[in-house]
């Protein structure tokens, strides 16, 4: 538990240090907050989706790489997804995490960037793939199979067929290109 808390504090501190300069200035100078106070404020107020999560992507040729994805784990975050975001804002992508395994459908409403959309079951195995989803398309899509996770990346971000995802990185694993 102690190790978990130290890791959590490290993530919070890293987020505080990498915030955009205007927000850091407000917290530090205008409000007179120390880094410790900033960390406490961030722990209390920021949603989990603010933090990047390292996700291992396993391919059919048994190779793997990692993506730093944003997590969407609330109904509000699920609904908004990557709407209105440019490829630069999307970065490596977004992982939608649901509390149960059920058939799910998504759409591209208000999403200006073509996306590759991967659907995974409770065992983190891919059960559906929709490449190069058309921007702004309001037609919903998804597999008929139960889904627990959805990974959205900028179209053609991953060059090989994906089989599975994992939260655990492999030793010496490289970033996905």
Topology:
Elements: H1 2-18, H2 21-30, H3 35-45, E1 52-59, E2 64-72, H4 75-80, H5 87-90, E3 94-102, E4 115-120, E5 126-133, E6 147-154, E7 162-166
Parallel strand pairs: 2-3
Antiparallel strand pairs: 1-2, 1-7, 3-6, 4-5, 4-6
Helix pairs in contact: 1-3
- Helices and strands: which structural class? alpha+beta
The CATH homologous superfamily of the largest domain: Protein of unknown function DUF192
Sheet with the most strands: spatial strand order: 5-4-6-3-2-1-7
| Beta content | 25-35%
> Uncertain runs with pLDDT below 50, 5 residues or more?
1-7, 16-32, 38-50
Question: From the coordinates shown, what is the CATH architecture of the largest domain?
Answer: Sandwich
User: What percent of the residues sit in helical stretches (DSSP H or I)?
Assistant: 25-40%
Instruction: Provide the succession of SSEs.
Output: HHHEEHHEEEEE
Defining traits:
single chain; 177 residues; alpha+beta; Jelly Rolls; 5 helices; 7 strands; 27% helix; disordered N terminus
Description:
The protein is α+β, with helices and mostly antiparallel strands and 177 residues long. It has 2 domains: 2-45, no CATH class; 48-166, Protein of unknown function DUF192 (Jelly Rolls), CATH 2.60.120.1140. It is built from 5 helices and 7 strands. It has helices spanning 2-18, 21-30, 35-45, 75-80, 87-90, and strands at residues 52-59, 64-72, 94-102, 115-120, 126-133, 147-154, 162-166. It has a 7-stranded mixed beta sheet with strand order 5-4-6-3-2-1-7. The chain is globular and about 40 Å long. It starts with a helix and ends in an 11-residue tail after the last strand. Residues 1-7, 16-32 and 38-50 have low confidence and may be disordered.
